[in-house]
Amino acid sequence: MKNNNDRAFWNKIYWWQMLVLGILVFLFHLLTQTFA
Amino acid sequence: MSILDWSVLFGTLLVISVYGIYKTYGQTNMERYLKGDNDNWWTIGVSIMATQASAITFLSTPGQAYSDGMRFIQFYFGLPMAMIVLSAFFIPIYYRLKVYTAYEFLESRFDLKTRTLAAFLFLIQRGLAAGITIYAPAIILSTLLNWNLTFTNIFIGFGVIIYTATGGTKAVAITHKQQMAVMMGGMILAGILVIQMLPVKFTDALHVAGKMDRLNLVNFEFNLSDRYNFWSGMTGALFLFLSYFGTDQSQVQRYLSGKSLKQSRMGLMMNGFLKVPMQFVILFIGVMVFVFYQFYQPPVFFNQVQVEKLKQSEYWVDYQQLEEAYQNKFEEKNQEIYALLDAVKADDQAEVATLKEKLREGSAEQEEIRKQVKELIAKNDPQGETNDTDYVFMRFVMDYLPKGIIGLLFAVIFSAAMSSTSSELNALASTTTVDIYRRSLYQKGNSKHYLQSSKWFTVLWGVFAILFATYATLFENLIQAVNLLGSLFYGTILGIFLVGFFMKWVRGHAVFYAALISEAIILLIHFNNGGELMGIPINIGYLWYNVIGSILVMAVAAIIQLGMLGKAPRDA
């Protein structure tokens, strides 16, 4: 049970990690396009 | 530099070094010396970031943004993903086996010879790289501060050797916190100051940067020969970061110092969340310096020492003519930039496009003048460095930032050099002690004996690094070779670990010979790069060596293992 909770916790963190990267890439793309 | 600057510089470095020694003096526990002091996640995160942030990060990156824009940021896109892979697969195994070094894992998974091979590859590569970590900034700092090169090397290395030898991993972690605070504080302050000094509004500055191709952050076009794009960042760089963070002891040692598996994982996640924004800030400062120099006359060549040398030579008149032409071009461009900003305000797209083209031509002409200046420098001093990218940022700092801040920015560079060096020496000493000395040379010692030997190995590697840095100028080719060494070995080392983690049916012999064969192939590719190998034209960026090396090890190991068994293994 603890292992499953643990795994769910880390999976959530990993998704957040990728989501934040995705948001950053999107913002960078926006910055590139807006001022080019 | 003023007395205030010197006091800030020396004061900062002295306080950090003395504090590191004071807090960790009298270390008697070998476990703590090599593994640190049950650190929490943010100490680990800071330590990982401080290890990776070398002086060259702060010297070169803004200069690179100045001349090439921000596209280098894409190189770091693979990092968060690498952190996830390490957190999910690498760290749990290191923790379960309670290892001191990453290479210990290889013995329990394969055999002694594979462990020793990986440890040796690490020692060669990291040992020489530690010399470069000191040498590369020392050559720039000694020029800027007018110091003797040997003295600069010793200045960087001496304090680090003392506190790293005294306190081991704990001292490295403690000093990293302060060094990181100095680095981030100094850079953010410099960023705020340069933005404040701009004669135009912030949004106008962004327009100038964007229209002059400096805000080129993301490029989704796939192109193998283009070094920085979204795809090379997500793939080639991912393998590089997996290798660096997962198998290089100077990083592995940082997160193995954690209180628990959870704390170590959180430390890696912190690095994953903050690294891209941190590189963004450093590159953005470089871009703002670029915008600043569109309104204030920049020097034709940023390394003042080379210009002074020209002054004493027969080429001085030629130089002055080029400088005048450069200045005229600057003034012409300056008018065009104001016109461009008016056109943006009026939303006159046609005019914006025309002015963009004009500015592009103007920049190309300025670059041509700079090229001629570089030719003069090369004629005057054939050994002289004609690349001034690394001097752009600190030259700006010295010319335009207020007293006190200049000293702080030098402290940033020195802190960065020291933070990387301390992790390297710490890791080199641990690997030498644990993987070579205690494992293969002398097994009868007690814990106190190995603690003492770790301390002495730290000193030895430190002295070696300083000596290498001091005599590196004599071997220009060697320096280039060392810079390459990382790319040449990293793929193979990562391949060994990936086989260890993911191909459970492959045994020691297979992976050992696979590693040797793959390394030979990588070297063969490298020495024929740009030419042909067996009729096949080869033109591969170094970043791809990491990918090729790892995949080769896995593939060859699988083939050898299958060949040795004669059929697919039953215990797979």
Describe the fold and architecture:
- The complex is a heterodimer of chains A (36) and B (572).
- Chain A is mostly helical and 36 residues long.
- Chain A has one helix at 2-35.
- Chain A has one helix and no strands.
- The longest helix of chain A is centred in the middle third of the chain and has 34 residues, at 2-35.
- Chain A is rod-shaped and about 50 Å long.
- The N and C termini of chain A lie far apart (53 Å).
- In chain B, 78% of the residues lie in helices and 1% in strands.
- Chain B has helices at 3-24, 30-35, 41-52, 55-68, 78-97, 102-109, 112-145, 149-197, 202-211, 230-234, 236-247, 249-255, 261-295, 304-311, 316-345, 349-380, 392-400, 405-441, 447-471, 476-502, 508-528, 543-565, and strands at 532-533, 536-537.
- Chain B contains 22 helices and two strands.
- Chain B has a two-stranded antiparallel sheet with strand order 1-2.
- Classes of the chains: A mainly alpha (36), B mainly alpha (572).
- Chains A and B meet through helix 1 of A and helix 5, helix 9 and helix 13 of B.
Instruction: Give the strand line-up of the largest sheet of chain B.
Output: 1-2
Main beta sheet strand tally, sense and closure of chain B: 2 strands, antiparallel
Q: What oligomerization state is this entry in?
A: heterodimer
For the largest interface in this structure, which chains are involved and how many residues does each contribute? Answer: A-B, 16 and 26 residues
Low-confidence stretches of chain A: none
Gap between N and C termini of chain B, in Å?
Answer: 66 Å
Order of helices and strands of chain A: H
Radius of gyration of chain B, taken over Cα atoms and rounded to an integer in Å? 25 Å
First-to-last CA distance of chain A: 53 Å
Question: Strand fraction band of chain A?
Answer: under 5%
What's the count of strands of chain B? 2
Biggest β-sheet strands, sense, barrel of chain A: none
Number of strands of chain A: 0
**Gyration radius of chain A, in Å:** 16 Å
Based on Cα principal axes, name the global outline of chain B: globular
Mean pLDDT of chain A: 88
